[in-house]
Amino acid sequence: MKHNLILRVIAKLLIPIIVLYALYVQFHGDFGPGGGFQAGVIFSVAFIFYALVYGIETAERVMPESVLRILASLGVLIYAGTGVATMLLGGNFLDYNVLASNPIAGQHIGILVIELGVGITVSSVMLLIFFIFAGRARQ
Amino acid sequence: MIDNLLNITLLAFLAITAFAIIRIRNLFAVIMLFGIYSLLSAGLFVVLDAADVAFTEAAVGAGISTVLMLATLALTKNHEEKPPAHRPWLPMIVVLVTGAALVYGTVDIPSFSDSEAPAHKHVAPRYIEEGFKETGVPNLVTAVLASYRGFDTLGEVTVIFTAGIGVLLLLGRRRGRKRGDEDNNET
After folding, report:
1. Pick the CATH number of B1-80 from 1.20.120.530, 1.20.120.1200, 3.20.20.300, 3.40.140.100
2. Chain A 24-53, CB below 8 Å of chain B: which residues?
3. CB spacing of B154 vs A130 below 8 angstroms
4. Contact at 8 Å (CB) between A94 and B150?
């Protein structure tokens, strides 16, 4: 797909918007529809789009598989770590009330952090699966 | 009124798409139809005011699954083998009986948005009344998903993580290198 000029230009134009939208869905999930799951999928879609247009090798140079593996585990770690942190602060597992001085602020921090964990894991696992499938097709 | 019209249109298109998926033998077209099916379901969820679910369905069902199935199709043939010429009557009867049982089951289901429904009597009133006060999050779905049911969501994330590990172990590219290493050890 090296000579598809229109596709490449449009992809360059669209990918930043897709990533921006994913971040909006991620951090606006408290107020509107969305959250970590949807944002993670949209985020990975931007990279898959990039891989489809520019080739998988180029996409893997941007986001190597080893990094994706670490990120996939990091998301779960952030989520479970929040639970452990609340326990260390004297609350129950995943009881965000103790994260800040007042319960509402604690809930806000807790929800934001775990949604971030969800988003990181979902996006990296989706990309990982895509790269593995597409990589086999290439062999 | 407009909701009913939309529901009937979307459900009719769902049925048409499902029939097309069964009839068509070209797998590429079937994958595209799967995507359309997911998109129609997402539309139905929007009509039901379930924006979060619709969002997920559109992103995962119509987006990612389609791409993953296309990537899988690249590994296999583009065309389904002709089905074996068996009689369709036994599967037909099984499907009809199951369908009739399901339709019979819907008779007991409370009607849509019935405030007396058991699902709305248990913990839902507490979430709706206290949710904003306790979490300060305007989107109730996020409040339930991330805070009240945080433990469930941790399980869901673990499931996705496990799926990724499974695919990595089964199809990961490390295998080639390992075979090379073994060859080196043998020689």
Report:
1. 1.20.120.1200
2. 25, 29-35, 37-38, 41-42, 44-45, 48, 52
3. no
4. yes
**End-to-end Cα separation, chain A, in angstroms:** 18
pLDDT in tens, chain A (139 residues): 557 889 899 999 999 999 999 999 998 888 888 888 899 999 999 999 999 888 888 888 888 989 999 999 999 999 999 999 999 988 888 888 888 888 888 888 888 999 999 999 999 999 999 988 888 766 6
Closest-CA residue to A114 (of B159, B140, B154): B154
Q: Is the minimum CB–CB distance between A81 and chain B shorter than 8 Å?
A: no
Specify whether the CB–CB gap between B155 and A80 falls below 8 A. no
A35 chain-B contacts, CB cut-off 8 A: 52, 141-142, 145-146
- Give yes or no for a contact between A109 and A94, defined as CB atoms under 8 angstroms apart: no
How far apart, in whole angstroms, are the C-alpha atoms of residue B83 and residue B91? Answer: 14
Put residue B87 in one of left, alpha, beta given phi > 0 → left and psi -120 to 50 → alpha.
Answer: beta
ipTM above 0.85, yes or no: yes
Farthest CA pair distance, chain A: 60
Contacting residues of B for A18, CB less than 8 Å apart: none
The domains of chain B are located at: 1-80, 116-148, 154-187
pTM: 0.83
